[in-house]
């Protein structure tokens, strides 16, 4: 899953973009978020305002954490079991490893999501609306094609180049 960023000056235009995106197959409202200084105006247009908790990042990080935590705890358990000759606490060590991994990776992913959005703080404070579009390999080309015909430009991931639509 990729996250595409666009900036515009108009909440109404963000609403028009959302309507056009929702016409695409396999695209749902949960794939489109907005962030702006006037959240009330965005909600009046029935736009999904991005929560500062970024639940998608928390869940994605927790999934990665469970897998990584299980792998690391299994490796640690194997080392301990070989040295001590006992396999009695296998389930406990794996469960603890999964829980610790889920928490650590979940928090890391959440913080990384906040850091990526933080770079747009000055633009949002100046009145710009940040459009955030989540795409996967299946719908990325159609989303990019649709958005390329609109008077907005994607914001580079490496270095933000603000393109504000009229």
What does this structure look like?
The protein has helices at residues 11-22, 39-44, 55-84, 90-118, 121-125, 140-148; strands at 2-8, 32-35, 129-135. The chain has 166 residues and is mainly alpha-helical. Strands 1-3-2 form a 3-stranded antiparallel beta sheet, with helices on one face. Helix 3 (55-84) runs antiparallel to helix 4 (90-118). The longest helix has 30 residues, at 55-84. It is elongated. The chain starts with a strand and ends in an 18-residue tail after the last helix. 24% of the residues are buried. Residues 157-166 have low confidence and may be disordered.
Features:
166 residues, mainly alpha, three-stranded antiparallel β-sheet
In short:
With 166 residues, this protein is mainly alpha-helical. It has helices spanning 11-22, 39-44, 55-84, 90-118, 121-125, 140-148, and strands spanning 2-8, 32-35, 129-135.
- Uncertain segments are 157-166
What is the chain-wise order of helices and strands?
EHEHHHHEH
How many helices? The count is 6
Number of strands: 3
* Largest β sheet strand count, sense and barrel closure: 3 strands, antiparallel
> How are the strands of the largest sheet arranged?
1-3-2
Give average pLDDT, whole number.
75
In what range is the share of β-strand residues? 5-15%
Q: Structural class of the secondary elements?
A: mainly alpha
* Spatial extent as radius of gyration: 21 Å
């Amino acid at each position: 899953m990729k996250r595409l960023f666009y900036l515009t000056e108009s909440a109404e235009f963000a609403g028009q973009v959302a309507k056009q995106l929702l016409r695409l197959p396999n695209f749902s409202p949960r794939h489109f978020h907005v962030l702006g200084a006037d959240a009330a105006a965005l909600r009046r247009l029935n736009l999904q305002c991005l929560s500062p908790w970024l639940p998608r990042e928390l869940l994605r990080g927790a999934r990665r954490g469970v897998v990584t935590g299980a792998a690391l705890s299994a490796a640690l358990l194997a080392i301990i079991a070989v040295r001590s000759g006992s396999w009695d606490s296998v389930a406990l060590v794996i469960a603890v490893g999964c829980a610790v991994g889920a928490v650590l990776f979940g928090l890391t992913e959440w913080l990384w999501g906040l850091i990526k959005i933080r770079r747009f703080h000055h633009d949002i404070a100046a009145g710009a609306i940040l459009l955030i579009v989540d795409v996967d390999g299946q719908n990325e080309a159609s989303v990019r094609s649709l958005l390329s015909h609109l008077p907005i430009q994607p914001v580079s991931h490496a270095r933000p180049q603000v393109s504000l639509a009229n």
